[in-house]
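Subgroup meeting minutes
Present: P.N., E.W., G.H.
Scribe: E.W.

1. P.N. recapped why we're keeping a running log of single-chain structure predictions: easier to compare across weeks, and new members can see raw inputs and outputs side by side.
2. G.H. added today's entry (139 aa).
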Amino acid sequence: MNMEVRNMNGLTFFNNSNVDIFDKLFDLDDFWTRPAIRTDEDKHRPSVKDLDDKYDISLIAPGLDKKDFSITVGGNHLTIGYDASNKKESYAYATKYTKTYTIPADCDVEGISATYKNGVMVVTLPKAESAKPRTIQIK
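Output recorded in log:
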């Protein structure tokens, strides 16, 4: 299968846009290892954007409250998760979810922030001033 995987400063980015339809239909390489029925966890693939001044990790998790989420930083790891097991009715894809990322070296760990709005959790990892693009004056 043609899948481009790039590792940029510790965050892993997946790009499936170059997968040929015939590769998807006739690829038997993972026939015995891929699940016969897609599970709910497959829907949680968060999007990671590498912007000029920050990284944004977006996770779609509708029907939850801010208090259901936990975001922790320990060492050089960032863990994003939620627990919706106490909800009687939830539109989230699973009752519990967690994912851990290695924080890139060019991030300002003290500036990490998160917002949850309209069913989307966005965790922002600002880049350190020294890592941001800048213009060099020619003397």
